Amino acid sequence: MNPIYLDNNATTRVAPEVLDEMLPYLQDLYGNPSSMHTFGGQLYRKIEGAREKVANLLNAHPEEIIFTSCGTESDNTAIMSAIESLPRRKHVITTRVEHPAVLNFCRHLARKGYRVTFVPVNNLGQLDMDFLFKSVDDDTAVVSIMYANNETGVIFPIAEIAQKLKERGVLFHTDAVQAGGKLPLDLKELPVDMLSLSGHKLHAPKGIGVLYVRRGTRFSPYVIGGHQERGRRAGTENVASIIGLGKACELAAKFLHEEATALKVLCDRLESALLKCCPDARINGDIENRLPNTTNMSFEYIEGEAILLRLNEFGICASSGSACTSGSLEPSHVLRAMGIPYTAVHGSIRFSLSRYNTQQEIDKVIEVMPGVIRELREYSPFGREKIVCPPQ
Amino acid sequence: MWEYTDKVKETFLKPKNVGEIPDADAVGEVGSIICGDALKLFLKLDKESGKIIDAKFQTFGCASAIASSSALTELVKGKTLDEALKISNQDIANFLGGLPEQKMHCSVMGREALEAAIANYRGEKIPEKEEGKLVCKCFDVSEEKIRKVAVENHLTTVDEITNFTKAGGGCGECIPQIELILRDLWSLKPPEKPPKPKKLTNLHKIALIQEIIENEIRPGLQADNGDVELIDIEGSKVTIALRGMCTGCMMSDITIKGIQAKLREMVSEDIVVEAYQ
Question: Chains A, B: CB contacts under 8 A, how many?
Fold first, then answer.
């Protein structure tokens, strides 16, 4: 059974075009780009070609692109670079709904004695902008705010934030791991200082990330060693993955607009059908400002892990913000920060689509889901007085 | 993904005895929708033999919670209440071919529902949880429950307590308290407790306090990124300063009381521990 893969905010399939492009560099062309001989040295130019393609997706200069090992490394590097460049400033601002790559790094800084402000969000997951700008002071070294949320898909007004922070002369980093390849990003227009991307979220393989650093931004490397990446990120280049990422960015740039439209149609279809046939369901997050591929829904009175494992029986892959799936006993920090009632947090399910999803797949989910919800509600001691899920 | 056994998966996909018994003789309800899992157990008894002739459940929770509930109903059928009370949470887990460590609390919930149902039938009042005895506020776990589950399952670490009761799995504030409960619990059992010297010279006392703080108290706090520093000892007054994560922790009073209790037990009854201002 081919899986119906609706968990693309977790990771994506490597595009076949990307894999084709990569294979020679995993087979015959195994050289080291730093070598003096042609066999290795020729790869340097290939890497620069990939760098151009990544820069093209972001409308940036190739020299502003640094290849890293993953989104987390990019995030850590950006924040660390900012505080190392401004050693007298001891304040960092981020949000309560960041990915752990930023959130836990900031908590780590708090333990080291930094003052960290976690900006709250409202019920729709929108950022408290007043709170954010009031938190900025002369001691602020860096502000790090995600472009779009991985759990709800809610997009933050990054252009407005970047502009205001630029006027106040504060360094700004955005974790655009979920936005890359899904939303148009134009860094000539968008005045962010640093931006993170992750390869495996846009149909490149795992283990490759990007940190964009605007020209003129003071930078301090995180991984120290050899001269690679112009001394900004040491370590022998992940040649095949860099070339794969270049191809993935080329594909994303080419299909971004038509894909966004198609994904939104599928996502809306799924959402409205499930809301219609499953009572006591709700959407979490601001649907006006949201990634075209993501929907986060809650089904009251039942628990997310149970829903996922039932869907798993039909080969449907999704994810949940429930406690049992979070790896800890606490449910999603994002949904809790939004003030979503616990009853709805435990029964939250995220569907995240990609260009490889079809309408047939979505219709299969629409067909299967009401039965799963109905059956689990039959087991549940809650919400019994109003179980009226219509028979299929 | 969790490593569920085939039996857990199978039981979750096709649970037995789901539903309610309208004229049940005993009903036990544990957990809450806030905590993420809840179980309502219904039992029907044969008046003459006193045996459980029917058992049904309603469960809100993950796959292992549903499977544990189903297992429980299968295990109790045909047993008298006294026999049923002998079923431990480990029996429920064993019936399912084992549960992942982090999911053991599901089997504990089954055992609790059984106790609640039998107490309900016998007209016993379930002791109300006293505010003061509540250890984990995130998941509503009392000291009594921690002690009971720890003894029944031979749990010696905070991680194990979290896996079996969820206590300490939320904000983590109560972890030092769980640590002290465990230390108290298990230090009573093995007779390795060093005999308390009758009369201590000042020099001995200082050395002993230093040794206890260094070897018995700091490792536990450091495990949670906290720490403590001995500042001064004047007669029976011991002044300490909490460090690391303990600084400003809302539970710091409890941590200090715990240290005092330890020093009173090991050194001298009249010791007073104060935080350095």
Answer: 76
